[in-house]
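Q: How would the structure tokens look for this protein?
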Amino acid sequence: MLDLDLLPILLPAFVAGLLVLSTHVLLGRQVLKRGIIFIDLAIAQVAALGAIVAHMDHRIEELPFSHVWMPAIFALAGAGFIAWLSKRFADELEAIIGCFYVLSAVAAMLLLSNDPHGAELLKQLMSGQILWVNWSQLVLPAIVSAIILAVVVLKPQVLEGAGFYFLFAIVITLSVELVGVYLVFSTLILPALALNKYQGKGVLALTYVVGFVGYLAGLILSASYDLPSGAAIVAALAVSAVLMRVLLSVKKSETVSSSTT
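A: Here is the predicted structure in token form.
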């Protein structure tokens, strides 16, 4: 059973998840459309690399908000590099992005190899610590998410051009700080993948439903059974996506059957 005393911890974590979902659902659909699945992992890993570099240099670490702007610089540079690649190596882009991700991950491991707290920092960046998010940490992501959503609503064509990479880098930077690399990837891909073949009405709303159910169920499971929150949410998102896909498939089959009788 869920301990109601945990609500002060679970509520900001759930709001953090909703903030991540608010932008990642839109960007995830664009990622699938472009066929660049590894871009989220690559940019998230590069942002994490920026956080590690800031951690390694105490002069940078002591500067105000270095945990935000340093990963953002790395993410924007990575996004700019991928945007450049997309115009020159379009037929090999996915493979190159995958290599870019691996090289960033290896660089992070090498930088932290002699750090006594390196393993813990790497685990935090990969798996995230969403349960320890507090309300003050949500202010900047909330403002940025609102601005990005407004830009997309007022100028949807921004998702089609090179501006997509810029928005992607900003969003990923803030998301990695909140929920970690693995959950960033899962939030981008799983809800979008669940509705990828669906051609009916309300596709965007249903995509958000998949993410909403996944985060809610994952946090409840994590709190109820003392499970790692990030892993529990990723598993719940996967189950939510599969269930949505099955339900839509059943609905489609029933529609086809009724139309032929």
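The mean pLDDT is 87.

The chain is about 80% helix and 0% strand.

Upvote if useful.
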